[in-house]
Amino acid sequence: MGGQEVRAVYGPVPSWRLGLSLGVDLLLPPKTCTFNCVYCQLGRTARGVQGPWEVEDYVKPEELRAELAKVDREVLNSVDWVTISGTGEPTLNPELSGAVKAIREVVGDKRLAVLTNSSLLHLEEVRRALDPVDLVVAKLDAASNHTFTLVNRPIISLGVERVVEGIRSLVHERGYGVAAQVMLLEDVNDGEEHLRALAERLRSLDIGLAYLSIPSRPPSESHVKPPPSYKVDLAKRVFEEAGVKVKAFTEPAEMKSRTGLDEERALELIRRRPCRALDLVLCTGASEKEVIEVLERLVKKGLAAKKVYRGITFYEAAKH
Ligand code: SF4
Questions:
Q1: pLDDT tens digit string along 43-53?
Q2: Considering the domain 9-255 in this protein, what is its CATH number?
Q3: What distances in angstroms separate CA 58 from CA 4, 75, 97, 147, 266, one per listed residue?
Q4: Ligand 1 geometric centre to CA of 74 (Å)
Q5: Domain ranges for the chain
Q6: Does ipTM surpass 0.90 in this model?
């Protein structure tokens, strides 16, 4: 990473799902994942693995404790959520239980969420490790193995039934605090028949809320497109008819935190997801002019690169 230290704690970032959120990355770049989703905003999976037993580089609980302890209390108080996510599938951290406990210890009663691809929820130790978390946002993009293969391109050897059973066990054991996240892709998983099958899965899982996303940042594969808005409306209707409440993607509201912006902070943010200049304006309270100057300096130094997706310029960390 160009000799620069990569931090596990980043943000706060405005999240359309959760409001203002402080991110905690349990793995660090390059991306380590059990999936290789066609829409992934982190590019193709650099380290594809079957489970935590294959992961060597990860953030240790004591490192998380030390980093979180350095976060300004005012910043921590200002965020709505602390969110465990980052560069890959967070439940792959081999010391997941210790990591989650360490985070809980430092953030106190601040609401804690995890964004997971659900591929390891069939493992009891993973579900137990998530006990201290208030909200598990579990990915389910496909109702059939065919669509699962097209969308998520699993590296881990498992089918969609196993994923669904993992989510079912989690909902059953927790009884609260589980939401689904579904990414809709044009002509891949947005057909009415598939949406009805997915809605039926969610209904049978007794999941009360589904976050419906569309690709809004440069995806791993250039053919990936967001569905037209009438398909998103159709998905909402189909899910709601099945008794699943839906929150669909909207631009995050303006939630300027007062953290300011320098090159290091900008780099931490664009390492986790490609950002528009506007995203950093919203995150930091810096002016658009200041943000663009910082980002362009990173580009000049070879630490960042620009990418245009659907006519919008994004900045992402350079891949060395
Ligand atoms: S979108 Fe999430 S689950 Fe899919 S490849 Fe990227 S990090 Fe992994």
A1: 999 999 999 99
A2: 3.20.20.70
A3: 17, 25, 13, 31, 22
A4: 31
A5: 9-255
A6: yes
